[in-house]
Structure prediction request, 266 residues.
Amino acid sequence: MYRYLAGLLLVLICHSVTASNLAREQRIAEQIVDAILDGEPIWLEADGRQFLAIYTEASTEKTLGGVILLHGMGANPDWTDVIQPLRVNLPDRGWDTLSIQLPVAAGDAEFSDYLPLIQEAAPRIQAAVDYFKSQQNSNLILIGHSLGARMGLVFLSNKAPAQIQGFVAIGLSAPKARDKNPVLDALAKIEIPMLDLYGRHDLASVTQTAELRHKAADRAIYRQDMVEGADHFFHSLDTILISRVAAWIRRVASGIETENEPNGLK
Prediction:
């Protein structure tokens, strides 16, 4: 493993002209890869560079499809809040999960420093789709949290791959401007079912723009749901988060019979 990581560092240095902080990404991989208890670390490739992902197979007799998970700003594919609970529990509901490392900036970077990285995430998301295709799994859901939700939204607004049947954006923030708003513009272009999920005590940039997001989206394929008591990270509400997400993705997944699940969306 360490020999591989040393080689990865060389690759990262050779491609350091990108906006993302590849050396920090390599350190993140070193810190988490040997601590993964559920799932298998794998290495995908995008733009000539390898990046970490964690693949976890469904534990049920029937596999419903695959879920691609996108973490938030400066985080990792095994992030304790939101990402890890979904990553390790959705397999119990019949879904293979693939949580991918997204581009990161420096540790002290501001949100504005991450904006150039949104487009850099697209090839990685496509690589995740391609990995599932190689596994003969073409019934996919994309789930993003925080900045990962923004990255997923932009990716899908530029024409979603046919394999992706639905999108869950958790804690999606947006600028307050009504005009030339990249989040609202992207929402207007989404052509697959979308769940906009956030907490009552979420970030102001999430709660105060909820109405704008709702108006910008195609309501025929868009659902917005607020969870009472939840903050941006759904602290102490993992069970509710998993239940809400699992119920919705089962309903929208192509070829899967729709059915009501206990504790799911009403």
In short: Residues 115 and 147 are 9 Å apart (CA to CA). The chain has ten helices and eight strands. Residues 117-134 form the longest helix (18 residues).
